[in-house]
Amino acid sequence: MSQRSCLSVILAAGEGTRMKSAMPKVLHAIAGLPMVAHVVKAAEAAGATGLALVIGHGADEMRKAVQKFAPKAETFVQEKRLGTAHAVLAAREAIAKGYDDILVMFGDTPLIDAAALAAARQKLAEGAAVAVIGFRPPNPTGYGRLIEKGGRLVAIREEKDCSEAEKKIGFCNAGMMAVAGNQALRLLDKVGNNNAKGEFYLTDIVEIAGAEGLDVVATEASFESALGINNRAELAEAEGIWQTRRRREAMLAGVTLIAPETVYFSHDTEIGADTIVEPNVWFGPGVKIASGAKIHAFSHIEGATVASYCDVGPFARLRPGADLRQRAKVGNFCEVKQATIEEGAKVNHLTYIGDARVGAGANIGAGTITCNYDGFSKFFTDIGEGAFVGSNSALVAPITIGKGGYIASGSVITESVPDDALAFGRARQKTLPGKGKELRERFASAAAAKKRAAE
Ligand code: UD1
Ligand code: CA
């Protein structure tokens, strides 16, 4: 099958009014990726070499988005929504290029798995003209029913056109199908709109092909993989299913998730074996975690790279560009952005490190802040190997702390510190013997005088 060429035609011209959104429905994300991008990924995994997206509502926004996740896809605008067959024909030009297989898919069915698509393509390789992907939903109401006779698929009947007997059929049309490339346009051009909705139904090609004596079959996919998204409750349901699958995949690949149902992955999270993830951790896009790391509870991580044996959290925030090298530690209530924390360095408590390098083995005390922004531009802080920054220090960038430099607690450092130097950036302490007691007595008598005056 691998040498057969394949065009995936993805229908996404629907308005998606039930999402109640200014954004086209299929751009709503699952695991941080637009649902139509999940569909594209599945098509590619099933061997699609060409991609044609049929769009309507929000065409400009769609084109821009598609450019990001499927730069090679061609887009076609379906001006009027006259039905699924009409929508496929909007991509006539792409289909006419002559592919072996045409895979028709829906942009709002994000959990479709590549195996179900490949199974339908396999039927074409074995000689079928049309292979429809069927499924058995718990409640078939609203779906097209697959009407089979003697192991062959003879028709798909939309709910509105079904007889009472046909409505009892549980095997339904998931909506997606594979059609032989050399038959597709001819069959689609024969579709009429003489039905309850007055639409051109893609599903009619089943009867048309059957009448010509062509081989038409149904394959079966899981209910989940055919789940269509129409509103935000279904979007959340799909997110839940996706997360459950991904958590399981991570655990089977050697990652410990103590409370898997509380850990959220992004579509592109990479995480190595023997890493332990405590409860309530969020991975945004662009995260790479090596093996043997510990991600403690309530950490929020995106766009970050975490090397082996690092220790992160609890309550750590790693933002884009955070790059933790082996055995680095970023502890509670610390935020790291666009900064490298080199091998074995420690940023343990209540700290902000942004636009910086923290050298190997350096120790950053509690409450340290890199002051990287003056309201207009960002500046870099370079902290050398083995440096020690005392608690509650402000490092005003641009600034360099040399190797082994030592910053006294509570400093505001505005000038670079050479290697092995000690820097104080604070007022010297004054201690006045007996003055504390004197002050307390003065305040007490003043308060008493005030009280008497009020009586
Ligand atoms: C369709 C199937 C039905 C199946 C169900 C599965 C047909 C005629 N019916 O019904 O058998 O059980 O899906 O969910 O195919 N679209 C366009 N342009 C159009 C019409 C539709 O792009 O003119 C797109 C929609 O955006 C959507 C997809 O095609 O992504 C399906 O259309 P929809 O109207 O939702 O079809 P259903 O009535 O659900
Ligand atoms: Ca639908």
Brief rundown of the structure:
By secondary structure, this protein is of the alpha/beta class. Helix content is 23%, strand content 28%.
Describe the structure.
By secondary structure, this protein is an alpha/beta fold. It folds into two domains: 6-220, Spore Coat Polysaccharide Biosynthesis Protein SpsA, Chain A, CATH 3.90.550.10; 232-423, UDP N-Acetylglucosamine Acyltransferase, domain 1 (3 Solenoid). 23% of the residues lie in helices and 28% in strands. The strands form six sheets. Strands 13, 14, 16, 17, 19, 20, 22, 23, 25, 27, 30 and 33 form a twelve-stranded parallel beta sheet that branches. It has a ten-stranded parallel beta sheet with strand order 12-15-18-21-24-26-28-31-34-36, covered by helices on one side. The longest helix is centred in the middle third of the chain and has 21 residues, at 232-252. The mean pLDDT is 97. Residues 11-14, 54, 78, 81-84, 86-87, 106-108, 143-144, 156, 158, 172-175, 201-203, 228 line the site of uridine-diphosphate-N-acetylglucosamine.
Main beta sheet: strand number and arrangement?
12 strands, parallel
Overall residue-averaged pLDDT value: 97
CATH class category name of the largest domain: Alpha Beta
**Using DSSP, what is the number of strands?**
36
Which architecture name of the largest domain does CATH use? Alpha-Beta Complex
Q: What is the helix content?
A: 10-25%
Give me the CATH superfamily of the largest domain: Spore Coat Polysaccharide Biosynthesis Protein SpsA, Chain A
The best one-word shape is elongated
The CA-CA distance between the termini, in Å, is: 99 Å
| Distinct small molecules | uridine-diphosphate-N-acetylglucosamine, calcium ion
Low-pLDDT residue intervals, each spanning 5 or more residues: none
Q: In the residues, how many domains can be counted?
A: 2
- Mind telling me the C-alpha Rg? 31 Å
In percent terms, what proportion of residues is strand? 25-35%
How many helical elements?
10
CATH fold-level name of the largest domain: Spore Coat Polysaccharide Biosynthesis Protein SpsA, Chain A
Specify the structural class.
alpha/beta
